Amino acid sequence: MASKDTICIQGGWQPKSGEPRILPIYQSTTFKYGDSDHMGRLFDLEEEGYFYSRLQNPTCDTVASKICELEGGVAAMLTSSGQAATFLSIFNICGAGDHVVSSATIYGGSSNLFTVTLKKLGIDFTLVDPDASEEELAKVFRPNTKAVFAETISNPALVVLDIEKFARLAHSHGVPLIIDNTFATPINCRPFEWGADIVVHSTTKYMDGHAATIGGCIVDSGNFDWNAHADKYPGLTTPDESYHGLVYTERFGKAAYITKATAQLMRDLGSCQSPMNAFLLNLGLETLHLRVPRHCSNAQKVAEYLEKREEVAWVNYPGLPGNKYYELAQKYMPNGTSGVISFGLKGGRETCVRFMDSLKLGAIVTHVADARTSVLHPASHTHRQLSDEQLVEAGVQPDLIRFSVGIEGIEDILADIDQAMAAAK
Ligand SMILES: *Cc1c(COP(=O)(O)O)cnc(C)c1O
C-alpha cells in the first residue's frame, strides 16, 4: 500500500495515456448514452455508470476514493457538508423508533442534529460520558440501539476517544461504531485500524484546509457484518422496493452501506457536493500530509507557551504531558492530535473577549482547522444554543477560548498572543 504522503498527492485520479494530468471538473448535471436500455440498466443498479450528478459525479467520486484510500476503507461518498455526512451516516441505518448511543462531547452542530432534528424524526439518542467505564456505558444500550457515534478528538472539548473501548462496546451489542475523524484526519489517526466501522468527515476543516469549501465525506471500512445482525438492519438486508426488490448486502457485499446511501439517500435527499467544490477539496488534500504536522507542531509550541503565562487560568491540549488525555493521544495519535487548543484566561469571560478582540493575526471566525490562525468563543458563538448545563456536559467551560493554530510563522503567532494578552489586562 502506498504511504499516506503518496496517496495525498497521487491517490484518486489515475489518468490513462493522453488524459489530463490533473483531476478534471466534470461540470455536468447529466451524462449521455447511446441507447435507452443502457440507461435503464444504470437506473436498476445493474451496471455502474453516471447518469445524474445528484447521485454520482466522476469528479466527486474520484476525490471520495482518495479519502477512502487515506482512511483504509472500501467505499466512500462525498456529501455537501460535514453535517450532511453525519446525518446520512446515521439515517442510512436508523429510522423512527431506533436508538443511537453517542458521546456527549461532540461538535455542537452534531448534538443539535441528534437531540433536536433527529429526535423529531423519531430517532432517540443517549449522550454518554466517553470516559465512563465499559460497565457504565453498556447500561445505556437498548434492543433498538442501531449505532454508536463519537469523535476521535472532540470539537471543542478536545477529549481524545478510547476508540478500542467504544469499538468493543458497539460490537458486543451488534452495532457499528461511527467515528467523526474531522480533527485528527487520517494523517494522525485511522480509526478503522482501531476497530471503527464507519468514518465521517467535515472536509471543510483540515482536508480543504483553506476555508474555501464546505463539504463532507462518509467512508465505510467494509468490516461490519450487516447480515450477522440482519434483523437490526432491514434497509440493507431485505428488498428495497424502490429498486425492484434489490437487496444491498446481496448485490454489493462490502460496498452495501455506501451504495445504499448513494442510491437511496442521495437520490431522495440530494445533499451532494458540487464537482467544483470537490476539485478544490482535492487541491487541499494534496498538501494535507504537509499541513497537518505543521499545525500540530505550531499548536504544541503555543500550548507550551500558554502554560507558562501567568495570565492563563488553564490550557487544554492533548499534546501536553499532564493533560488528561495525553496517554490516549500518545496511543492513538503519536504524531500529534490537531492544531486546536482550548484555554481560559484569568479574569473570566470579559477578559477572554477582550483578548480575542485584540488579536491581529488571529481572526475571530466561525471556523477551525484552516491554514490561518483563528479564534472562537464557543459559549457565545457555536454552542450558544446550549444551556449552561449542556455546555458543561459537552466539555465546554463558559470561559473556553478555542484557538485554532494556523501554519503561519510560529514567532508571529506567539507575538500576537503576547500583545493581545497585554491589551486584555
Ligand atoms: C465542522 C464540523 C462538523 C460539521 O461540518 P460542516 O462541514 O460545517 O457541516 C462536524 N464535525 C466536526 C468535528 C466539525 O468540526
Automatic annotation (TrEMBL):
Pfam families for the chain: Cys_Met_Meta_PP (PF01053)
Residue numbers carrying N6-(pyridoxal phosphate)lysine: 205
GO (cellular component) term, any one: cytoplasm
Cofactor dependency: pyridoxal 5'-phosphate
Cross-referenced InterPro entries: Cys/Met-Metab_PyrdxlP-dep_enz, OAc-hSer/O-AcSer_sulfhydrylase, PyrdxlP-dep_Trfase, PyrdxlP-dep_Trfase_major, PyrdxlP-dep_Trfase_small
Keyword annotations of the record: Pyridoxal phosphate, Transferase
Any one GO molecular function term: O-acetylhomoserine aminocarboxypropyltransferase activity
Annotated family: Belongs to the trans-sulfuration enzymes family.
Protein name: PLP-dependent transferase
